[in-house]
Amino acid sequence: MRILVVEDDKDVAGFVVKGLREAGHVVEHADNGRDGLFLAASEGFDAIVLDRMLPGGVDGLRLLETLRSQGNTTPVLFLSAMAQVDDRVRGLKAGGDDYMTKPFAFAELLARVEALTRRGKGEGPVTKLVVGDLEMDLLSRGVKRAGQKIDLQPREFRLLEFLMRHAGQVVTRTMLLEGVWDYHFDPQTNVIDVHVSRLRQKVDKPFPSSLIHTVRNAGYMLRAEAP
Amino acid sequence: MDPGLRRRRARGRFLARLLDMLPSERVFHSADVRFGLIYAALFGISAAALAAFVWWSTAGLLLRQTEAAIDADVLGLTERYNEGGTAAVRDTIQQRLAANLDDDAIYMLVDPAFRPIAGNLDRWPSVPLDDDAFDLEIRRARGLSKVRVRHFDLPGGYQLLVGRDVEVRGQLRGMLQNALLWAAFIAVLLGTVGAWAVRGLFRATLAEISATAMAISAGDLTRRVRVTGQGEEFDLLAETINDMLDRISRLMDGVRQVSNAIAHDLRTPITRARTRLEDAALHATCEADLRAAIERATADLDGVVSVFQALLRIAEIEAGARRSAFVPFDAAPVLADLADLYCAVAEDGGLVLETDIAPEVQLFGDREMIQQAVANLLDNAIKFSPPGGVVRLAARQGPAGIEIGVADQGAGIPKADRARATQRFFRGETARSTPGSGLGLALVQAVATLHGGALALEDNDPGLRAVLRLPVQAERAALPPA
Predict the structure, then answer these.
(1) Per-residue pLDDT averaged across B304-319, rounded?
(2) CA separation for the pair B301, B307 (Å, rounded)
(3) Contact call for A186 and B316, based on CB within 8 A
């Protein structure tokens, strides 16, 4: 995927660019708002990682607003030191698709950027999700694995749905908390781990192979075992 | 040296000194001098009014008395003249002179040729005849006297003078004048001294306050304005200032405590991270060791970041900026969701999470904040509960407001610590061994305050019952202004 990183801090930019390239993406970098806007408007990207405070007279919010006013819908993830709730709300209102605050873990950034690019593709309404031998019918809200019916609580269903929609991608705990529970704060205890482990009891335990994998220092990933 | 020149020089020096002593523009703008001058002016006006009254009621009275006596005489003589003509007047004058023991009456009756007919003057004084009344200097038996006389033309060319010797009265008047001049001099003296005294008094009172303020701005926060204990206005001012200083110093203590706590609480994980990194740099023998050390150090730093985030979040809530985003919402499903989230965690720890949530709990506020506050309470309850315990989340809507309670059966918080439990970084004795930052309840408290409610920590026997009391939606007008 082609990703544009607009970030003026050399260390942070270098770290992000290197990490994204290692993950197999093609990365362009701009260190000020003007260049960033030029690149974003003239070339097609799958996602943009955007700092809010930028030199060059065009800050992140302005850049994004200009981009959106031109009908450009490239998914944008804000990466900013401005961490207040109001800042986040302003970023999302300006057309941002996700908002991360500094300091950040790269694994989280990578997971969110990849989730964004998936979202950006717009596959149209889906009624059925399939990963390996796991099937989810979104209309009848039934889940089957290897033809065997699995009973899930409503919340467990939504958790599994989120994992399946992001199958093959790393999903962090924060993403689950936001995506499944719509919570935007950090609980002290590892509530997500407990819920995932319960889901595993039902989805993985009775079967010979596991679908839900723990990704160290990052989160979880749902994927079919490599054949 | 020429004495003239010396004198001129001396005069010049004196003038120069006088000019130096003259107050400059700035002096008149200072409050103490102004108060002194106001005092002097008031004093001067009072003294002048008093002197004027004394003058009017003594010197004026003497003059009026003389005039009245002359008038009475004239009236009597006129009657005599009407009865018996010039001869009767002459007789009356002689009678009156004989009866006048004070020897202050003056009469003179002359014929058309100015020959004296009666009276106690040896000759007709040289006076203009067209005037009615005038003052004269007349040589009399006891010397030169001042007299006041009135003149009448009688029919047939006769002339009559009636008057009074006012020499004694004049002397009295002079004495009075002298006395008043002296009094004026003394008044000026007293006024000046008084003005200085008032200025000094004013200055002394302000100096105390000013000295205290100066000491405080120089950093000595323990200084207070002295209260004289006489209960007057300056004491009131001093007490108000002292109250203000107390409040400032309490706030300063709070800030100092929080910054000390921040420094201390962050020093620990930063030290740990630093030690790990340095240890790895010095002693790691393989890449796996290095990676492990770096990962653990990163986790420590993440802990530091989360403490910062919690602090900033509390500050953000306390600032009240989010109040504009308040909306009415039903808290019942929000609480049920939270119970759902924490139910699994509780069961994992061998606990039971019971809920008793009313079907509808209408709140006016920020949904995310309420979520986070209740999540913090549930976190705490689960963290401090012994295995097998019951954690209970209850919510109900009463007439007094909304109560959201989280009760556990853990060790609770000793009564003595409860007031401090909501301070930033406070950690009870029993909590020291468990992970946490000591910011959870501080955040709940901030959320409660922002919503116009309160957080109460009560006994659950055993355990703790944390109750979030919030006003009902109808009372949204009662919220403190944002």
Answers:
(1) 84
(2) 10
(3) no
Which helix or strand (DSSP H or E) is residue A115 part of?
Answer: helix A106-121
B440–A contact, CB cutoff 8 A: yes
| Whether pLDDT at A121 is above 70 | no
Residue B84 has pLDDT above 50, yes or no: yes
pLDDT of residue B357: 92
Q: Do B371 and A195 touch (CB under 8 A)?
A: no
pLDDT tens-place string over residues B117-165: 888 877 777 766 666 777 777 777 767 778 888 888 877 788 888 888 8
Q: What is the CATH number of the domain that holds A116?
A: 3.40.50.2300
Same domain, B337 and B307: no
Query: Which residue in A156, A124, A122, A163 sits closest to A141, CA to CA?
Result: A156
Q: Which residues of chain B are within 8 Å of residue A198 when distances are taken between CB atoms?
A: 344
Over the stretch A128-156, which tens digit does the pLDDT of each residue have? 899 989 999 999 999 999 989 999 998 89
Looking at the partner chain, which of A83, A189, A195 has a beta carbon nearest the beta carbon of B312?
A83
Q: Which residue in B338, B341, B356, B337 sits closest to B394, CA to CA? A: B356
Angle, alpha carbons B368-A185-A97 (nearest 5°): 90
**Contact residues, B window 300-319, toward A, CB-based 8 Å cutoff:** 301-302, 305-306, 309, 312-313, 316
Q: Is A194 on the interface with B (CB under 8 A)?
A: yes
User: For residue range B454-479, what is the model confidence (pLDDT) as tens digits?
Assistant: 999 988 888 899 999 998 764 454 55
Whether the predicted pLDDT of B15 surpasses 70? no
Q: Determine contact: B375 vs chain A, CB below 8 A.
A: yes
Cβ of B322 within 8 Å of Cβ of A86? The answer is yes
* CA angle, residues B92, B98, B99, in degrees to nearest 5: 90
CATH code of the domain covering residue B255: 1.10.287
Whether residues B298 and B431 share a domain: the answer is: no
Cβ–Cβ below 8 Å for B376 and A188: yes
Q: Is A95 part of any domain?
A: yes
Per the structure, the complete domain to which residue B357 belongs is given by 323-478
B169 within 8 A of B179, measured Cβ to Cβ: no
**Global pTM exceeds 0.90:** no
CB nearest to B344's CB, from A84, A183, A198: A198
ipTM: 0.84
Question: What is the Cα–Cα distance from A84 to B445, expressed in whole angstroms?
Answer: 19
The structural domain count of chain A equals: 2
CB-CB under 8 Å, B379 with A187: yes
